[in-house]
Specification:
Layout lengths: L11 E3 L2 E6 L2 E3 L1 H9 L6 E3 L2 E4 L3 E5 L6 E5 L5 H16 L6 E3 L11 E5 L5 H13 L2 H6 L2 H9 L8 E8 L5 E7 L10 H20 L1 H4 L10 H12 L3 H15 L9 H7 L2 H10 L4 H4 L11 H5 L1 H8 L4 H7 L3 E2 L5 H14 L7 E6 L8 E4 L4 E3 L7 H20 L7 E3 L6 E3 L4 E6 L1 H5 L3 H12 L12 H4 L6 H7 L23 H13 L19
Parallel strand pairs: 12-13, 13-18
Antiparallel strand pairs: 1-9, 2-3, 2-7, 2-8, 4-5, 5-6, 6-7, 9-11, 10-11, 14-15, 14-18, 16-17
Helix pairs in contact: 2-6, 6-10, 16-19, 16-22
């Protein structure tokens, strides 16, 4: 990228948004950022976020679900990007386990860009400036993901007509400060520093021409938009990828912008923006993820299976982290069956300790006493483990009933992810059912605290070493009508307090530091006589997670 010390005579700023994604689910930005940064010395808590001296703020917007970064404004794009980089560097070392998405799949995410304006401009002057700016916006529109763009517009965001001029107080001399906020861009430009700097440079060069050389910009009447209908049609062309007209407009923009006064200062950045295919390729390379695009997680070496299972390695990693915060943020969903919380806590703590990104969504519950092996299904009702225990029709029906019931309980928690999502590369819907995993833990395994075996199983699932078992068309026909082991387990007495070891309430030291899970375990033991024992004989004992 071109390096320049020449400044614009206006400040450039931005407050782009992002979603914090964990296990393909959007999590609350305000809650997560507060939990992670509240005790960090380099961050100073402000209204709606935290600040780093001279760099800006990172926090959330009016909707607490959405993250927002607010770099300190500057007179050059390079300085704004430097501020962004410093914010991400400080923030990112605590956020490497998450995906920081710039797509609007989970909610509409905007990439608002600000330019210092003149408080004396009339309303008509303001509208003219905006109209002239968006007349040169086609290269950025062509590089935006069309599904993302269509989703934002459907949610009443991202229209090219969306802008505002806002008073931002006064400077030290008492002169009013006003800002032009360009609200049309999506947050995709935030995906990498290269795209971010090119976007700010390109728009700044155009804004500079409009405000400082109005006669120059007025010469290009053939591409300047003249009405709201033209503006709407301009955006429709980009969404529908009407290539003949789009390329005609793009060629004109390439020709005209070379005459702009600041073009040579930012020639490399502008030429990059004028190549929409290269921009798209760059965004897709990093999966529209700030974490990847800004190299936040590059320094993190993925842990091996041996390290994650090792108690010694786990203790080394967890001692420098806040286990309570990890357990509150990395919430694995589960039922209140006896001691299931121990296993869930072990998983969340190891994921946090080793920056282990879990790509599947899990719902963990307890199996009846007498069932010997772990049984695992995905949301497609495909078995990943435990099928060999099913030898009779009764066994099969009981297991299917239990897993269907757990699926309903998971849905009741409002934590279950959508089973259908959008593939932003193809624009087609895709099923997420294979990513939703239900794990039934045997009673004896829970009582003996075999968390290492459980973590080993999760590793195998995450690394595709434990996959859906092939379906045998003759499987159901091969089942007998005799009572099976699972049927016998159902007929046995339900779990009672006497089944628990004397220290059942005391969880393992390195797997129970979450006050939330400790409290849940205690509450579970307290209410089981009143609640769990009153369930019908043919039901799996469980209590909703949330």
């Amino acid at each position: 990228m071109t390096k320049t010390t020449k400044e614009f005579n206006f400040k450039i700023g931005a407050d782009p948004e992002f979603s914090i994604i964990l296990q393909n689910k959007r999590i609350d930005a305000k809650q997560t950022i507060l939990e992670i940064l509240k005790d960090k010395k380099e961050f100073k808590q402000q209204n709606m976020g935290f600040s780093i001296s001279n760099c800006g703020d990172i926090g959330w917007d009016g909707a607490s679900q959405t993250g927002e970064i607010r770099p300190t404004p500057a007179f050059t794009p390079e300085k704004v990007i430097s501020n962004l980089n410093n914010l991400f560097k400080a923030f990112g070392k605590y956020m490497s386990i998450f995906e920081l998405s710039t797509l609007s799949q989970h909610a509409s995410i905007g990439g608002h860009i600000h330019f210092q304006s003149n408080p004396n401009w009339s309303k008509q002057k303001q509208k003219t400036i905006h109209t002239q700016l968006i007349s040169f916006y086609m290269p950025i529109l062509m590089s935006e993901n069309k599904i993302n763009l269509a989703l934002r517009i459907r949610q009443q965001y991202g229209a090219l007509s969306d802008f505002k001029f806002e008073r931002k107080g006064e400077n030290n001399d008492g002169i009013p400060i006003e800002t032009y906020e360009f609200r049309s861009p999506s947050a995709e430009w935030l995906t990498t520093p290269k795209i971010a700097q090119a976007t700010l440079a390109y728009l700044s060069v155009i804004y500079n021409e409009i405000t400082n050389h109005p006669r120059s910009i007025s010469k290009y009447k053939d591409i300047l938009l003249k009405s709201d209908k033209q503006t709407e049609a301009f955006q429709t062309l980009a969404i529908q990828e009407y290539d003949i007209l789009n390329q005609t407009i793009l060629r004109s923009i390439k020709k005209y912008i070379k005459t702009f006064h600041m073009y040579k200062e930012y020639q490399d950045e502008i030429n990059f923006i004028l190549n929409p295919k290269a921009i798209i390729k760059e965004k897709m390379k990093y999966n529209y993820d700030i974490n990847q695009g800004w190299g936040i997680s590059q320094a993190i070496i993925p842990a091996t299976k041996r390290e994650i299972i090792s108690e010694k390695k786990f203790k080394e990693k967890i001692k420098n982290k806040d286990a309570d915060v990890i357990s509150r943020i990395l919430q694995i969903d589960y039922n209140n069956d006896a001691k299931v919380s121990d296993f869930v806590n072990a998983l969340s703590l190891r994921a946090g300790a080793f920056n282990w990104k879990l790509n599947k969504q899990y719902f963990i519950f307890g199996l009846k006493k007498g069932i010997k092996e772990t049984i695992i299904q995905n949301a497609k009702q495909e078995f990943l483990s435990g099928l060999e225990q099913i030898t009779t029709r009764d066994d099969y029906e009981l297991i299917q009933h239990a897993f269907i019931k757990m699926s309903c309980r998971y849905t009741e928690t409002n934590a279950a992810p959508n089973c259908i999502t959008i593939d932003f590369k193809t624009g087609k819907t895709t099923s997420m059912k294979s990513n939703i995993i239900y794990i039934g833990l045997p009673y004896e395994m829970r009582m003996k605290g075999k968390t290492k075996e459980f973590i080993n199983t999760i590793w195998d699932i995450e690394n595709e070493k434990l996959v859906p078992l092939p379906t045998n068309p003759d499987f159901l026909n091969s089942l007998t009508s005799d009572p099976g082991e699972i049927t016998k387990a159902k007929q046995q007495q339900k779990e009672t307090p006497e089944d628990f070891p004397q220290n059942a309430i005391t969880l393992a030291d390195n797997e129970s530091t979450s006050s939330r899970n400790q409290q849940r375990a205690i509450e579970n033991l307290t209410i089981e006589r009143e609640e769990l024992f009153t369930e019908n004989e043919d039901e799996v004992t469980a209590s909703p997670h949330r």
